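Regression test case RT-17, inverse folding.

Input:
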């Protein structure tokens, strides 16, 4: 079975896909076979689900698409609402089964959650329930913008309350860049009891390989082979 990680973030659009792809690159650079998974994608653009494509491109093993992405909804709206509109119910068990099958095919599986940690997936379950059911260590991506201290600390607490490990967190400088970023980084470092895996500044070309070079896998709790 693979070592898995569940990538969550302080919000949507904070760099989860960038960091998930960067983790895949970084593990692959260490000689690991890697697969990215996006259990629930919402928002099709130009006929493509960008997150799924990015994760597949960053994988060294070609997982079957229906396993990599069991649920895809065309509208860029909350997954539970998108599912309801299409008369579909997102099943965590279906996702867990897909994960298990992928986990037999690679050394590392990186699962990108949808939205923020507590985003509902159906009438009674959230993305946090999925992380708990998968029992994976969580990587928290903090989009460095005003409001992130509250979102980051709430998310860290939610991870701990579920009894899940936090493998670490990444400070991601989403454009245009935050005022007093150093002070905010310090405030987070002092309060998040998990290792800082890396700090990514606002990048002109936010490519996974560029972000991967800024991550320190050895800092991660539970890093495979680390
Ligand atoms: N450090 C960064 N520098 C520049 N652009 C970034 C950075 N991080 C993310 N982005 C861009 O911001 C957008 C949202 O990032 P993404 O990884 O898709 O977030 P999420 O998966 O959390 O929704 C994307 O267009 C991405 O390329
Ligand atoms: Mg994403």
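Golden output:
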């Amino acid at each position: 079975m693979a070592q898995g990680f569940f990538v969550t973030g302080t919000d949507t659009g904070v760099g989860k896909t960038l960091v998930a792809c960067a983790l895949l690159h970084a593990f692959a650079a260490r000689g690991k076979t890697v697969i990215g998974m996006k259990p629930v994608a919402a928002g099709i653009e130009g006929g493509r689900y960008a997150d799924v494509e990015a994760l597949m491109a960053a994988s060294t093993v070609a997982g079957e698409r229906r396993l990599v992405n069991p649920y895809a909804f065309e509208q860029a709206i909350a997954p539970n609402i998108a599912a309801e509109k299409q008369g579909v119910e997102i099943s965590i068990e279906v996702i867990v089964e897909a994960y298990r099958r992928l986990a037999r095919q690679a050394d590392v599986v990186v699962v990108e959650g949808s939205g923020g940690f507590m985003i509902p997936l159906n009438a009674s379950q959230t993305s946090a329930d999925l992380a708990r059911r998968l029992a994976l260590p969580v990587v928290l991506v903090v989009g460095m913008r005003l409001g992130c201290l509250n979102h980051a600390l709430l998310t860290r607490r939610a991870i701990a309350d579920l009894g899940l490990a936090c493998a670490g967190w990444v400070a991601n400088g989403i454009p245009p860049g935050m005022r007093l970023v150093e002070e905010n980084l310090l405030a987070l470092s002092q309060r998040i009891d998990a290792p800082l895996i890396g700090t990514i500044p606002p990048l002109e070309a936010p490519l996974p390989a560029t972000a991967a070079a800024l991550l320190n896998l050895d800092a991660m709790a539970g890093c495979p082979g680390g």
